[in-house]
Amino acid sequence: MQSLPHGTSATDPDTKPLIAEFRAATKRYGDILAADALSFGIGKGEFLSFLGPSGCGKTTALRMLAGFETPTSGEVYLDGERVTDVPAYKRPVNMVFQHYALFPHLTVADNIGYGLRQRRPRPDRAEVARKVDRALEMVRLTGFGPRRIWEMSGGQQQRVALARAIVNEPKVLLLDEPLAALDRKLRREMQIELQTLQRQLGITFVLVTHDQEEALSMSDRICIMQSGRIVQSGSPTALYDQPVSRYVADFVGKSNFIDGTLMTRSGNAGQVQTATGHRFAGRLAGPLGPGANASLSIRPEQIGLAHAARDGAEPVTVINRIFLGEHTEYLVRHAALGDLLVLVARQAEAAEGGFAPGDAGHVTWAPEAGLILGLD
Fold first, then answer.
1. Beta strands per DSSP E along 177-313
2. Domain segments of the chain as ranges
3. Could you report the per-residue pLDDT of 71-112, keeping only the tens digit for each?
4. How far, in Å, CA of 6 to CA of 212, rounded?
5. 60, 181, 206, 234: which has the fewest C-beta neighbours closer than 10 Å?
6. CATH homologous superfamily for the domain 18-242
7. Residues 255, 242: contact at Cβ < 8 Å?
8. Cβ neighbours around 148 below 10 Å, total
9. In this predicted model, what pLDDT tens digit does every residue of 48-58 receive, in sequence order?
């Protein structure tokens, strides 16, 4: 597993000036290491996501930034100021929670203006009303101020939570899996709205999610986490096309893996041989040498499925078919390689006449489609 060295930054040096920074921030809960010497920066106006499975440390990182958790060791900075021991309510950040945390007994307007009314000195009513109306306009809920929370749909409540967060004009907006409670279609609509809102406001957004599609579709940069550490950081395209480990390739999108031994290497190209003697070419993702255990990663959309055999094609049997609209997902079985996932565009499927479970077929992929990774 390749990971970022302690004390190095996960921020590209060409990014914007930093609005937040972790310096060797570690968090322990007894014997449990939740965050392991995190050192990275977040650029001003950036949309950054922490992505990883449950227990990887992404929520701990967010809570340390929010001030809900204090690092066991290390430092946290916001806009150049050390805030390691500064309580949450004194930090220039706001947080949108998964379950919104709205007050059911208050109107929409009162929910949004709640934080403004807690300020000292307190703004006058006219200023609070003006800022609330502006926040409602930003989230496309103009005129909804007098309504009660229980009169709002799930998507509308999500917008209210966002309005309540942005009305205080935070320097960083923290999003803790804010779309998890929404259905798939509404979630996609809210992803677009969040992106649009972030561009309009210019506020730094930091998202925690375990949803790959959510992170890939919205983020400028993604930090992949494992066991309390950032194992790779980069743009969605870079992480998808150039994962540094099998863990990252498996977590960002879908991939097929063919395990074996690296037999040859020439520059950035190599060949992997499986236990059954099959050899496959691919691009090398790291400093592997001949004889190393390796895994060839191939994305499902890079595999072609056809009825007729062609040079280099591998025979398979179709096990399952799932229609996804613009694509069809096939699970096929190779006698030696096992199961492979294949994603076929609708036009390509029509040209082949389609496949049904039990049909024989042949799969092919270009040598450059394979990425040779070290085993985790």
1. 204-209, 221-226, 229-234, 256-266, 269-273, 279-284, 293-298, 304-306
2. 18-242, 254-374
3. 999 999 999 999 999 999 899 999 888 777 888 899 999 999
4. 26
5. 181
6. P-loop containing nucleotide triphosphate hydrolases (3.40.50.300)
7. no
8. 13
9. 999 999 899 99
